[in-house]
């Protein structure tokens, strides 16, 4: 929460029981966050898809990427790094399939569900 405030969120979120940023306020906050990372020397690549891991002798040496518009991965690039952290969200099926082909052990999350319902007219079926 303090990090969010550092980059522009209202201080109110530090004391609210159910803190809410507001989607419209998130955009400038993320720009500030990005600028901070770039000032520290971080390179951020947009429109770049990770297609595969670069693995040699059982060690991950980097990633193989292509431009997201390059559907057939004709111009792939190998990028080497000391470490690779995948933070691809829960819907990145291509990445999970790729990891499966490398025999990476995948463990499903415990069951999670979120539901939202808005009724404009009619009776509330939950009553
Ligand atoms: C409509 C909606 C409303 C929500 N509202 C809220 C809310 O109010 N409050 C809240 O706390 N949470 C909310 N959430 C949930 C929240 O958005 C997620 O929990 C959160 O974004 C998950 O973060 P993440 O970093 O794990 O994954 P993501 O935010 O999904 O980030 C994963 C990133 O990896 C990238 N990626 C995936 N595969 C590749 C690849 N092969 N190569 C390169 N990049 C790749 C994706 O493009 C994406 O940018 C909402 C979600 C939705 C859908």
TrEMBL record:
Pfam families in the cross-refs: DAO
Domain FAD dependent oxidoreductase, which positions? 29-104
Under the heading SUPFAM superfamilies, the entry gives:
FAD/NAD(P)-binding domain
What is this protein's name?
FAD dependent oxidoreductase domain-containing protein
């Amino acid at each position: 929460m303090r990090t969010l405030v550092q980059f522009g969120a209202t201080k109110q979120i530090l004391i609210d029981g159910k803190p809410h940023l507001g989607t419209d306020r998130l955009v400038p906050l993320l720009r500030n966050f990005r600028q901070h990372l770039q000032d520290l020397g971080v390179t951020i690549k947009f429109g770049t898809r990770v297609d595969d891991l670069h693995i040699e002798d059982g060690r991950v040496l980097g990633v193989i990427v292509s431009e997201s518009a390059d559907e057939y991965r004709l111009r792939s690039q190998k990028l080497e790094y000391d470490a690779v952290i995948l933070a691809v969200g829960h819907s990145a099926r291509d990445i999970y399939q790729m990891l499966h082909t490398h025999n990476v052990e995948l463990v499903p999350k415990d069951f999670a569900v979120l539901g939202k319902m808005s009724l404009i007219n009619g009776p509330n079926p939950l009553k």
